[in-house]
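Worked Example 4.2. Read the sequence first, then its structure tokens.
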Amino acid sequence: MVLTQKRWVLLKSMVGVKGHMTIRDLARELSRDVKAVHRDVHTLINAGLVDRIEDGRVVFPYDGIHVDFELNAV
């Protein structure tokens, strides 16, 4: 699953942030383990929701995000 609760919180913390952030900065801001945030950031990069720039920092390259889905009983 790409969009877990913790990854939503991570994305929310990046929306509207001007500039780029290090994974360590994100982990500190979210009070989470650096390795766990690193793993989540890479999942979000692979999904195209976060970009990594040459110096290793990450950025949410959009003004916002809208998700529309339907959940039905099996």
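Now turn to a second chain, presented in exactly the same format:
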Amino acid sequence: MNSYGNKFRISVFGESHGEMIGVVMDGVPAGLPLSPDDFRKDLSRRKSGSKGTTPRMEGDIPSIASGVFDGYTTGAPLAVLFKNENTISRDYSQFREIPRPGHADFTAGVKFNSFNDIRGGGHFSGRLTLVLVAAGVVAKKIAGNIKFNASIVQIGGSGDSSAWDAIIGSAMAEGDSVGGVVECVCSDVPAGLGEPFFNSLESEIAHLAFSIPGVRGIEFGDGFAAAAMKGSEHNDCFIDAAGHTATNRAGGINGGISNGNPVVFRIAVKPTSSISKVQNTLNFTTGELEEFSVKGRHDACIALRCPVIVEAIAAIALAQHL
């Protein structure tokens, strides 16, 4: 399905090269100040244009279709729409017979009997992360004093930011792509948010993290490194009655519930699947393997545009529990 949440519920719709994309938010409290200008800062952080991002440039101007009156939310479902204006659909005509390796072309075709919109990846496109960012803007307002700060900590396997430009440039020169890791720190999160087991704060954030196309992993606090530690190394010892701890190896969550320390998690973003570098793959019409190169406009490193999207999904998950 294309919806998430119950107390704060979002539903996304649209395709990359369709007329528009959008999000409907239900459970938005009445009385929040909201205008199109409130979306400008976060939407601009997701935009393409820098080295390693797609040449496709969209206006990304939000249109608030419902749920706001006289500059304040009404408590009714809030709908935000974005027009698609810069599309070149001919680049995608061949992907029925030759699905792109690593992309959703094949699986979408199987699930929807080839009725799915293949242009620009259709409903599976990273274009849809725009509406996640829009929902995140509203979720951040609901979250109040909680602060969200996501940043890239690794590109192409390197944690040295001074090397990233060369790594991306080398991949672009080869017609290839690289992945990255994004870390998000949520500060001033009150203790007590989340549930044990199926609605743990980790599972809610992870659920939303994997709605970002290209995400391949998530870890909280020390994450996988914790498996190599001893208990005495990984335990966070308390330093005051409010629950603050000397370390934050658990990433601010115990038993699925926030413990009052910053919630810290990282996501792994794969290298972009759509690359111009020649690959050998199957032509499903002829049944033969053949050389294949993806045409069109694509990011060489989709992780570059992910930090604000990661902040958005964190805010949406926390708004669900607030």
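Notes for the reader: The mean pLDDT is 93. The helical segments are 40-46, 105-111, 129-143, 164-173, 201-209, 231-234, 307-321.
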